Amino acid sequence: MKIACCLAFLLFTITSVSAQETIDKRLVKNRGKQAEEAFIHNKNSYNYYLFELDKGHWMTTVSELDNNQKSLLQPAENFKNEHGQSLSYTEAISETFNFYDYGIRIAKEQRLYVALDEEHVIVFYSIPELSKLFSNSEFNTKK
Fold first, then answer.
1. Which of 109, 106, 111, 132 is nearest to 123 (CA)?
2. Which regions of 8-107 does DSSP assign to beta strands (E)?
3. Where are the beta strands (DSSP E) in 1-143?
4. 119 near 61, Cβ under 8 Å?
5. Claim: this prediction has a pTM higher than 0.90
6. Where do the domains of the chain lie?
């Protein structure tokens, strides 16, 4: 019985470790060899790329925006994937959302506001904001 418990624990540990050691396919699609190299040699850079994809944006509503932010709103129709489909609310809230697929890049100077429909807005941080958030996050391995 003791051996069976030890084997079960060992199997669980190996499975947990190997699950965490798989490169995110979205990053390979977005950055190719750069993502693969970072995954192997520079985990903090890899974590930044992952942070950018998963934490570089948030959802809000049009009613939550001030007039200046509303003036920066761009329609989702401006952002299409390789199949010509516009960015949608359903896609934007998906766990596997990859904004690179829609030609969206994090801007150097200001946030990007995209109206997904009459109510929902996805907001992308600027590079300085994202860098600051990353440096204080659990993704940053160099704290």
1. 111
2. 57-61, 73-75
3. 57-61, 73-75, 112-115, 120-124
4. yes
5. no
6. 24-135
